[in-house]
Amino acid sequence: MSHVDDLRLPHAVSVPIPLRWSDMDAFGHVNNTAFLRFFEDARFSAFPAAGVEVGGQVSTRAMLAVRHEVEYRSPLIYGRHRLTIDIWATRLGTSSVDVAYQAVAQHDDEADVAAVARSRMVLVDVTSGRPQPMTEEERAQFTPHLGEQVRFRGW
């Protein structure tokens, strides 16, 4: 365990995520499938709050997930831990952005990284489904949140 402040990343946006009893599985910890929902909730909360608004509900363009990779590091226990997702961008492509996540499980002042993950998001035209280049303004909104790639442990 580490002190919670030792796990914070300067370029990341931190999003508290409430845990639900239904996130648990038969083994008494939060099920691995719940993490993708946590990461999605963090994306929708973090980037608009940080000034990054690409696409949107009534837009003709949308950011779609095309890949996720998750590494689980320690159990997350409902009723014991508070969860914060740290989220940041690691790469900007022409029409895509790679997003990294660090799921921090906190109990009092102590914390562990429960999982790390990365996603590739692609900006598409919702009518055609074709990738669309990000504008310079859209790209500039991600810049303050660019950081290093997630470091996965070896296989």
Automatic annotation (TrEMBL):
Keywords: Hydrolase. Its EC number is 3.1.2.-. It is an enzyme of class 3 (hydrolase). One of its GO terms (molecular function) is fatty acyl-CoA hydrolase activity. The keyword Hydrolase applies. Gene3D superfamilies: Hotdog Thioesterase (3.10.129.10). It comes from the Bacteria. CDD domains: 4HBT. This is Acyl-CoA thioester hydrolase.
